[in-house]
């Protein structure tokens, strides 16, 4: 009897391994379409804000259903308010063609001869570096023609 269970376990082990691997890979992929991202351009952005400490870990957000196929999800993030950090919830936005988002960062930078912890706010930029604004709009509710 023990040989039967041992042989059966050997037969089904590869199947279980592939099934587990498939679940892991599917679970790691994001189903949300996030905004296009790129680097900060310090010369085209406001000066960084000096902060005393790094922000808390990001909050876990439940991404609302994407009701418009033209929209992208902008992740939530912390921003400094005085000596504290405030959470700004993520949202679906309509991104102009050719634009990308440089997400907020907190890092040590050399400023005025010393190294200090600074926060750079998220900023929108054009990929082609042309003049013009890249301001996302709130995601519109789709019409019957959009679906």
What is this structure's SSE topology?
Blueprint: H1 2-28, E1 49-50, E2 72-74, E3 77-81, E4 84-88, E5 91-94, E6 99-102, E7 105-111, E8 114-120, E9 123-126, E10 137-138
Antiparallel strand pairs: 1-8, 2-5, 3-4, 5-10, 6-9, 7-8
In short:
The protein is of the alpha+beta class and 147 residues long. It contains one helix and ten strands, in the order H-E-E-E-E-E-E-E-E-E-E.
Provide key terms for this protein:
single chain; 147 residues; alpha+beta; 2 domains; three-stranded antiparallel beta sheet; 1 helix
What low-confidence regions span 5 or more consecutive residues with pLDDT below 50?
17-31
The largest sheet has its strands arranged as: 1-8-7
- What is the terminal separation in angstroms? 59 Å
Q: Major sheet: size, sense and barrel closure?
A: 3 strands, antiparallel
- How many strand segments? 10
Query: What characteristic shape results from the CA principal axes?
Result: flat
Counting DSSP H or I runs of 4 or more residues, the number of helices is 1
Percent helix, as a range, is: 10-25%
Question: How would you explain this protein's 3D organization?
Answer:
Strand 7 (105-111) and strand 8 (114-120) form a beta hairpin. It contains one helix and ten strands, in the order H-E-E-E-E-E-E-E-E-E-E. The chain is flat, with a radius of gyration of 23 Å. Mean pLDDT is 81; it is low at 17-31. It folds into two domains: 1-30; 42-138, no CATH class. It is of the alpha+beta class and 147 residues long. The protein is 18% helix and 29% strand. The chain has a three-stranded antiparallel β-sheet with strand order 1-8-7, with no helix packed on it. A three-stranded antiparallel β-sheet has the order 2-5-10, with no helix packed on it. The protein has a two-stranded antiparallel sheet with strand order 3-4. The termini are far apart.
């Amino acid at each position: 009897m023990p040989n039967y269970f041992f042989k059966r376990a050997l037969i089904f082990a590869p199947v279980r391994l592939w099934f587990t691997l498939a679940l892991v890979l599917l679970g790691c992929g994001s189903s949300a379409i996030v905004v296009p991202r790129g680097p900060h351009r310090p010369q085209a952005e406001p000066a960084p804000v000096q902060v005393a400490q790094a922000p808390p870990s990001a909050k876990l957000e439940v991404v609302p259903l994407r009701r418009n196929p033209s929209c992208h999800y902008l992740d939530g993030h912390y921003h400094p308010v005085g000596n504290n950090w405030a959470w700004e919830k993520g949202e679906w936005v309509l991104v102009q063609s050719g634009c990308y988002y440089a997400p907020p960062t907190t890092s040590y930078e050399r400023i005025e001869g010393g190294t200090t912890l600074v926060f750079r706010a998220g900023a929108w930029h054009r990929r082609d570096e042309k003049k013009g604004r890249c301001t996302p709009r709130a995601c519109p509710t789709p019409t019957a023609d959009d679906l």
